[in-house]
Design goal:
Blueprint (H helix, E strand, L loop, with lengths): L7 E4 L5 H11 L3 E6 L14 E3 L5 E4 H4 L5 E5 L5 H12 L3 E4 L13 H7 L4 E6 L14 H7 L24 H24 L3 E6 H7 L2 H8 L17
Parallel strand pairs: 1-2, 1-6, 2-5, 6-7, 7-8
Antiparallel strand pairs: 3-4
Helix pairs in contact: 1-6, 6-7
C-alpha cells in the first residue's frame, strides 16, 4: 500500500503536464480515475509512431500515452451531455482531488468548474492547470510546452551561442516545461491534501505553465534579477561554475 492509498483522484486532464502529476499521485498509491473522450481517448493515444501492437496485430495506443498514464483506471465519458456531466459530478463527490487542464472557464458550461464541484464537496482539492493562470491578460490563451519554453526563457539559454555554428534558440529534447509543471502540481496537491486532512477543508489550486517554467529558471533567473547578468546561450558551458 502506498502513502496515498486512501486518496481518490478524478483526472479530467489530458496530454502531458497534468497527467504527469496524476501519474505521480498514482505511483504514491492514490486511486486515479481518468476521464477520456468516447471513441478517441486522450490525444496522446494517437501521438505516434511508435505504436503498440494489439493482440490481433492491429495498431494500438501510441507509446507516448504510456509515459504519463500508468496506475490509472480509464472511463470514457462525454460530459458535454447532461448524463455524462452528472456522472462526473457523482465521481467528484466521492473523490478527494480533481485535476483538469482545460482552458480558463471551459468546464463551467458543464458545471464541472471548481466552484460548482466544491459546492457539492467542500473538502475537494481542485487543481487546475492552464497556460497563464485564471486571471490576467493571457488567461484565455492556450499554453503548450513549445510555446512556454520560448516565452518562459528556457530556449534563450539553450543551444549554441550567437555566432557559433548552429547558434540559435533551441527547445529542450523533452517537454520539460510540461514535466516541471506536473511536478509543481504534485507538490501543491500534496500540500492541499495535508491541509484537507488537518481541517476537512478543500483547496483551489491555480497552476500556470508559464509560472512554473519561469520559476524553473532557477540560477539563470537570479543571475539577472539579483546580479544583473543577462543569461545567454553557452552550449554545454555552465553560466556560473567557470
Amino acid at each position: 500500500m502506498g502513502a496515498l492509498s486512501h486518496i481518490r483522484v478524478l483526472d479530467l486532464s489530458r496530454v502531458l503536464a497534468a497527467p504527469w502529476a496524476t501519474q505521480i499521485l498514482g505511483d504514491l498509491g492514490a486511486e486515479v480515475i481518468k476521464i477520456e473522450r468516447p471513441g478517441e481517448g486522450d490525444e496522446t493515444r494517437h501521438f505516434g509512431p511508435p505504436f503498440l501492437e494489439g493482440a490481433d496485430g492491429t495498431k494500438a495506443d501510441a507509446t507516448y500515452f504510456l509515459a504519463a498514464n500508468r496506475n490509472k483506471r480509464s472511463v470514457a465519458v462525454d460530459f458535454a451531455k447532461p448524463e455524462g456531466a452528472a456522472l462526473v459530478k457523482r465521481l467528484a463527490r466521492r473523490s478527494h482531488v480533481v485535476v483538469e487542464n482545460f482552458k480558463t472557464g471551459a468546464l463551467a458550461r458543464y458545471g464541472l468548474d471548481e466552484r460548482s464541484l466544491a459546492a457539492e464537496n467542500p473538502a475537494l482539492v481542485y487543481c487546475s492547470l492552464t497556460g497563464f493562470g485564471h486571471d490576467g491578460p493571457r488567461k484565455d490563451k492556450a499554453g503548450y510546452d513549445y510555446l512556454i519554453q520560448g516565452m518562459g526563457g528556457l530556449m534563450s539559454v539553450t543551444g549554441q551561442p550567437d555566432g557559433a555554428p548552429g547558434g540559435a534558440p533551441m527547445k529542450v529534447g523533452v517537454a520539460v516545461s510540461d514535466l516541471v509543471s506536473g511536478l509543481y502540481m504534485t507538490i501543491a496537491i500534496l500540500a492541499a491534501l495535508l491541509h484537507q486532512a488537518r481541517t476537512g477543508e478543500g483547496q483551489s489550486i491555480d497552476m500556470a505553465l508559464f509560472d512554473c517554467q519561469a520559476a524553473a529558471l532557477a540560477n539563470q533567473a537570479t543571475n539577472y534579477l539579483a546580479g544583473g547578468m543577462l543569461p545567454t546561450r553557452l552550449g554545454n558551458a555552465h553560466p556560473n561554475s567557470v
